[in-house]
Design a protein that fits this description.
Layout (H helix, E strand, L loop, with lengths): L6 H4 L3 E8 L2 E8 L4 H36 L3 H9 L6 H11 L2 E4 L4 E4 L7 H6 L2 H4 L10 H15 L9 H11 L1
Length: 179
């Protein structure tokens, strides 16, 4: 793994990264942008392309819902979700699709399934984009003590459950830890 670089090293403008993919190591070259104006121009480009992509996704998603309403065919909406770039908020598209279309998301199948009992709301779907329908949650830094307290509370409610593995002795130690 590369050591953390200082300002002088970044000026070299090229960094080799070691990535792991299922235990295999790969090298990736990346050109680092060093000029402030070039970084600012790249940020502006990302903003513009992001807005354009979000608009395109909204138009295609509404079109998929109209196609589902007309033909009962969910394949295009499933292809849209599969085509979303990595890191794009696909859960927002899933929630939006369920709210406005005759579909439900099946976590096991990792796909939408048709639901003839639901109603399609194209007007509502046009009014709000998937990204605005389900905004990204606010970043919450880890609070170890608070997270342990929540875990202990949840575990206390489920100790003795046939479906859960909550050893009483381990729970007792956790309770002592946060007491």
């Amino acid at each position: 793994m590369q050591p953390v670089m200082g300002p002088g090293q970044i000026e070299q403008a090229s960094v080799a990264l070691v990535l792991t993919d299922c235990g295999k190591r790969k090298r990736k070259q990346m050109k680092i942008i060093t000029e402030v104006k070039a970084i600012e121009a790249s940020i502006k480009s990302i903003q513009t392309r992001g807005k354009s992509l979000a608009k395109d996704i909204h138009i295609v998603a509404v079109s998929c819902l109209a196609h589902i309403e007309k033909h009962g065919d969910i394949t295009l909406l499933n292809r849209l979700v599969t085509a979303l770039p990595s890191g794009w908020r696909s859960n927002a598209v899933k929630a939006w699709g369920e709210a406005f279309g005759k579909v439900n998301w099946d976590n096991k199948a990792k796909a939408f399934v048709y639901d003839k009992n639901k109603k399609t709301d194209l007007e509502g779907a046009i009014e709000i984009s998937p990204e605005d329908f389900k905004p990204e949650p606010e970043y919450k830094p880890m609070d170890l003590a608070a997270d342990i307290v929540k875990l202990v509370k949840k575990a206390s409610e489920r100790v003795g459950s046939d479906n859960d593995n909550v050893p009483a002795e381990l729970l007792k130690k956790l309770q002592e830890l946060v007491a």
